[in-house]
Input
Amino acid sequence: MANQRFNISMKKFLSDPILGVIILLLLVGGVASFTVEVFFTLQNFTNFLSGSYFVMLLAMGMTVVLISGGIDLSIGAVMALCAGIVAKLALQGMSVPLVIVCALAVGAFVGCLNGLLVTVVGLPDFIATLAMSAFATGILFIWTKGTPIVGYMDETYKQIGGLAPIYREVTVPMVIAIVVAFALGAMLKKTKFGVHLFSVGSNRLATRQSGINVTNIRILAYVISGVCAALSGIIMAGRNTTVPPDLGGGYEVLAIAAALIGGASLMGGRGRILGAILGEVVLAMTINIINLLGVPSSYQKIFIGGILLLAVLVNQLVISSRTKILMRSTNKK
Amino acid sequence: MSFPTALSTTRSAPIILDIRQISKSYQGVAALENASLQVRKGEIHAVLGGNGAGKSTLIGILSGVTQPDSGEFLLEGSALAPRNPRDAIKSGITTIYQELSLVPALTTLENIFLGRELIIERAGMKVLLDRKKMKNEVIELAQIFGISKDELDIPISEFGALKKKVIEIVKALTFDARILILDEPTSGLEEEERLHLFDHMRNLRSRGVGLIWVTHHLDELHGLADVATIFRDGRTLESLNLENSTVGEITNLMFGIQSNEAGLRTKNDRLQKDDKSNRPEVLSLHAVSRAGVLRDISFSLHAGEVIGISGLAGAGRTELARVIMGIDTRTSGQIFLKGKEVNFKSSAFAYKAGIAMLPEDRKQLGIISGLSVAENISISNLSSVSRFGFIISRKKERELATKYKEILSIRTPSVNQKINNLSGGSQQKAIVARCLNSKPSVLIIDEPTQGVDVAAKTEVHELIRDFTSKGGAAIVIASEIQELLELSHEILVLRNGSIVGRIENVQNSIEKSRVVEIKAEVLALSAGKRLKNEI
Output
């Protein structure tokens, strides 16, 4: 009985998608602490983390979409568009809360459009969100006439962007990331909607046959990812101090990488919010280490590619060794 | 969620499901014709029949996947017309299919309550799952079926085939299922697991659930099923009380063997017994095994010969073909092709060496939909239509396809037609053409005439005979014994992966009286030795 109990908790632990990223985190962190002296300091940690909250938000939204069996390639562009909206409206003298509400509404709207395109219209997720990405970037280009939006910054936006702390080391982006992480984490684990998200991504037909409105679930997943992108854009506007038209380029790829490193699967039905966060931490840590080692920043992308491949390999290794361990434990019985 | 108390006997139990004269046809072809059957409370009701007998259509109608053209069915006296599976489940009819209808990523508990989760109210919001309450509701039932409390929290993907089946059963019971349809529930289960499943089925019976059990495994029936209804050609033939009927009777009904059945046509060009030894051996298998699937398969195939493979579904027929083709690896044994030992790494090597296969599942594995008839024919041997061996000549391709179109009388306005627009029979012939075009010395055909009308069937048979009369050798896998008798020189009967019987010199023994005898023998061998005594 005790043995069975152990087996079951073992099963649970080993089937957790987060296992891979923890291994990777220990690996990268371990290597860094031996090779780079200043790596293990609070200063360094807050430093490299401060630049990663906005990607974390993108990765969390992406994880929700990945769990539902989709993929959202528009979030980089939506983030930039929302940053543009913040800058534009702030320049026109709109109050900060109203600016934020407008940006969030645009994010939710684009997410909703994505959701409608993949469900009601029936386009493949990849194509619909790629098109949406092009639209969002296009709008920002028209708006900015190709030159960066400048001159909207004030003390409040500095705080929103995390350039000025609100209390000691605590910054607004950090708080937003933590609040969103807890909200989404609880949503996935403790609500009906969360269960249905996994269900849709894992076996869409069986979910539909259980009387669940699959369309609504999928649309809502994209809305969540759009809102996350908008939040990320609001932070970005403050952090970057200007909004160039090509601000969003490539961030969706980083978000996908972080989500996959964190144990999400392109096949749907798998993923964790904490995984996405740790996935981004691994990416940020890697960039931090190569910066500390004095490697030219032009090499960054190569390392990110390498980490992504390594992460997927580790996840696969975890899965296959898990099957072996479980087989052995059942054979013993 | 309450359950009826156990019933001691089923004979006098009330009818809970009354199926009355249900008919359904697809594009003018009747799949079900006035099918009727009654299931009593606490009864295990076996539904038997060969491929295409109408069993799946009936399940589809009962489970709300398809709607009947006419007829009705009553559950506990009230007529039911489920529009979708959800409807049927809610009304008390759950179907457990061969493939999984659970969600792998969710836990046992989440699967059981999927779509009807219990919600706890917190701060005026009804969003949080009440896992505790859900657990309490289901735990008692789960434990009866051997699912522990901890296992409720484990994702379905971690469980084996039996446990998944049992979870589906428990899920059905929480819907207060009064009729449970089990479609080939033992497929994919080990021997020991089967026995466990049967225990669960008895348990369900004692709870008063009416079980409809679709199975090919006749040897499992006795001692478990109470009644069996036999389907043939879309009609329900008879409901037998299994206490006083033998498997012999059942198989006779299933496959329509009657003593006055006409004998088989004998062909002049057929191979005679004495010249077999004169012909060279083309393919031979020595004790070929694949763990858990095939055991010690040995036979030799000579030029001009057809070996028929018989056996029930799951006996290892298709698996044998896959091992010969190198699609699956063998765990032991040797395969010789023209005297040389071969070990194909994939079917491409088998094709190169001269073995061609026509797969069973035409839609999925055979035709390449989207390509034209001509392209489908030439694809296995593109060099036959190429210039300098690598530039494909569309003209040559068309000529080749037109040649086969005429020889095989493939009915299509043009060989440029997309293959999916053709009838089933013509598609099959196009694939035969593809195989023949790769100039094989051995042709393996899995269910050569599945989904093919009578006329086309004869033509496909002619093609096979023509192929062997020119020195080719063929292995034909078929469920229909009649078909094997018409084509083969020797019939091997497979059961549980082993050859349990060989009927040699089929062509010599074809006399009217012997046909019935051979059929009965093959069936008895397929179903298991215990049954042989009964016949």
Notes: Chain A has one domain: 41-320. Chain A is about 75% helix and 0% strand. The two ends of chain A are 12 Å apart (CA to CA). The longest helix of chain A spans residues 300-332.
